[in-house]
Every structure is written in structure tokens, then in C-alpha cells.
Amino acid sequence: MVSSPATSFMDELLLNDKELLFGVISGKVSTAINRKLYHDFRANDITLTPEQWVVLQSLAFKDGITQQELATFTFKDKPSITRLLDNLEKHSLIARLADKLDKRSNLIHITKAGIAMHQRAKAIVLNSMKEALNGLSEEDIRTGEHLLKKIFKNLS
To answer: Are 87 and 77 in contact (CB under 8 A)?
Structure first.
């Protein structure tokens, strides 16, 4: 069997640079999940990006937070979260309302249209993640979650 250049590269990483292998694989998994979500959203006439979904999911979990809190919660930088919020606001999925206690900041709220879009997209996300986790045991999933959280903590 002839190996592809990608396979040779991955094999070489595995043999020579185990420290790099995890970063490469986790990056590929993240990209693959985002591509799948993007494709599945489009196939179901959902006009969100995976990044926008994360923002709506965050607001569905905790509505009425500041832009900075949302940036921290979603692990986005200021320019990225501003761009995401601008696009979501343009489609009336979120609203920025002045904070009554601090006039210098806005609180971000999910709108009724945003809640409806979130619910439609959530079903797609759950199905996509079910496909992604196919064949993994509960123990596999817990171990993976534990490892990823530990790595994230090391880098935070």
C-alpha cells in the first residue's frame, strides 16, 4: 500500500515528535467538526457559522452578559467577538442593550429569533456530535474530555 504525503507526515510526527502529534491531530479534529457543522447547517437552511453557534449557545446558557464576558466565555479576542456580534445583530439574532448599572457597556441578549435559530441549530449540532463520537465508549469520552481540559488548563 502506498502512503499519501499526509500519512507519511503523520507517521513521521508520531515517530519523531510525539509532542507535536497531539497538536496536529486536535487541530484536524477541530477543523473537521467545524466543517461538518458548517455543511450540516447549510444542508438544513441554517445560516449560522459554527462560531456564531457557539455565541448563541453561550447566550442561551447565560443571557444578558457583557461583550467582554462573552469573549472570555467563548475564548474569542475582542475583534473576533465584535465581528461575530455585528453579524448576529444584523440578522436580529442578538441585541445589544445598554447596561443600566454601567452606561459604558452593553449587555448582549439573545432575541426570540435567536432562540428559535439556536433551537434549530442545536438539534443539528447534537446529531453531528453523535456522529463524531460514534464508536467511542463513555469511558473514552470522559478520558478525552479530561485530557483536553487538562491541556487547556495548562495553557490558560
So the answer is: no
122 is a domain residue: yes
Q: Which domain holds residue 138?
A: 48-155
Contact 106, 81 (CB under 8 A): no
Give 110's strand partners.
94
- Minimal CA–CA distance to 86: which of 76, 77, 95, 98? 95
> What pTM was computed for the model?
0.81
C-alpha to C-alpha distance for 80 and 75, rounded to whole angstroms: 10
Asked whether residue 84 is assigned to any structural domain, the reply reads yes
Which grid cell is 118?
Answer: 439556536
Q: Assign residue 18 a region: left if phi > 0, alpha if psi is -120 to 50, beta otherwise?
A: alpha
Q: Is a pLDDT exceeding 50 seen at residue 1?
A: no
Q: What is the pLDDT of residue 10?
A: 60
